[in-house]
Sequence to fold (266 residues):
Amino acid sequence: MGEVMKRFILTTVILSALFLPALHGQGDNSAPQNTPGSPREKDELQARIYMARKEYTQAADLYTKLWREYPKEASYPNYVGIALLEEGKLNDARKSFEQATKVNRRFPDAYNNLGATYYAEKNYKKAIAQYRHSLGLDPNSASIYTNVGYAYFAEKQIPKAMEAFHKALELDPKVFDETSRVGSIMSFRSVVDRGLFNFILAKNYAESGDAANCVVYLRRAADEGYKEIGKARKDPAFAKVIADPDVKALLDEVAPEPPPPPAPHT
Fold:
């Protein structure tokens, strides 16, 4: 698999639920109950083990078996798609996600994952459309809002990207934190201008009054070579944190104000 696809797979938030129990109830309520210790539960556990071991072919095969046995359970074709995506089989993965939406047209994860396949192809308009559809079904998902933001950022629609990131932070202040459940995945998202991207995140944290995270992302912006960090001093978005000692110290370090011009001789 190529390096670009590897980086993409690391970035998709669709993996956040892989090690949780399968999303039963995404299909038909008439499906047999998945009782503890049942063959179905054992197969699901084995499939998750395969995913954890990165044995994606085996995982896809087992989720496909479950899908055949329980054709009205939308989570199974969704998981098949995730496994196929990990193998770099983008078109096959998309078909599986599409099947999941046909089984359950109100399954937000499947639409989000469809968006991820278009994002991988840099078809950001289609990605945004799928992410928006997913948000319509799950309007309180911080991770989907981050996906929307990344797609707008790639489209160079910075105000819309900032709006999406800000909403994500309102829903989950730790959504970009590498210690959060999905943060370590999202932190590897491949964006062209990482300096500007981190400055935007710093700006969003500043608007929320979160000086500590603002400093973190200002530092990252500086490390990525962003040249306009000094603008934070006069940007109204930073008003809530500009007097914070740590913010001030960082700005003085990475973007010191030029010395005043010498006084004219009299």
